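Late entry, evening session. Most of the bench is empty. Finally got around to the prediction I had been postponing all week. Sequence below, unchanged from the version circulated by S.P.
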Amino acid sequence: MEFQISPILFNKFNLVFLCQIFVLETKSGEVFSNLLLLV
């Protein structure tokens, strides 16, 4: 039996993962991470 993750949950984790990479790759990571906290 495979553990299936709901598409919405998967997309949310994917988005967070991409955002973290983006923050690490960006010089102005502090500003971007602050925007994420508002969401």
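Two things to note before I forget:
Residues 7-37 form one domain.
The first helix runs from residue 7 to 25.
Will write this up properly tomorrow.
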